[in-house]
Amino acid sequence: MMYLFHGSDAGKTRAKAFQWITAARAKQPEAPYLRFDATSLSETALLNALATQGLFFKKSLILIDDPFSVAESGAVVVEHLEEIQKTENIVAILAPKLLAARVKKLETKAEKVFVCDAAEKKVRGFNSGLVNALAAKDQALLWKEVVKALREGDAPEAVHGLLHWKARDMMQKGSPKWGKDGARVLSRRLIELLSDSRSGDLPLAASLERFALTLK
After folding, report:
1. Residue 120 to residue 131: CA distance in whole angstroms
2. What whole-number distance in Å separates Cα of residue 11 and Cα of residue 116?
């Protein structure tokens, strides 16, 4: 009987597996507990463990810890999946960051599968609201966009870089609100803002908010 623990979050996968092991041992304290890691697992050791039976216990609890981190031990597990599935003993396979091809093969043999994937990091796209507020010379809107970007996790350097990119873009293409000369002054001001924040005048995030509030 096989239980599979896998997922892209190695820490959560490991914690889930050992939580499950602890609960299983509490239910059957008399049952032997065997743990193999990738360096101690061999074909002989695995087959002996799968066949282990006793007079005073019905099932052994076997943990195979990250066998696919070593090619040889991973091959042993794959070769003997049928025996692992059919044994009366309880086998838990802990395999964080398991390759997709192996996931499919192991899941078909497992009594139950536990998956602990890392949360997907949200990728923010181009912040058009920020650059449009700067181009429109809208002080209140720019401040709101700067605060929003910082609160949503954008690095102050990234916010500054986008603003400076827009200033240079307006220098080249022109701007109804700024004109090329105004955009050139804006670009210099943003360069000075970054320099002043690095010299300790104000942290960059606060400097960006002050810049937005004093936009003219």
Report:
1. 27
2. 9
Arch. (CATH architecture) of 2-115: 3-Layer(aba) Sandwich (3.40)
Name every residue whose Cβ is closer than 8 Å to that of residue 163 and which is 6 or more positions away in sequence.
130, 131, 134, 190, 208
Per-residue pLDDT tens listing for the chain (216 residues): 999 999 999 999 999 999 999 999 998 888 899 999 999 999 999 999 998 875 445 789 999 999 999 999 999 999 999 999 999 999 999 999 999 989 999 999 999 999 999 876 666 678 999 999 999 999 999 999 999 999 988 899 999 999 999 999 999 999 999 999 999 999 999 999 999 888 877 899 999 999 999 998
Q: What are the sequence ranges of the domains in the chain?
A: 2-115, 128-213
The three-state DSSP-derived secondary structure of 158-181 is: HHHHHHHHHHHHHHHHCCCCCHHH
Which residue is associated with the tokens 């924040």? 197
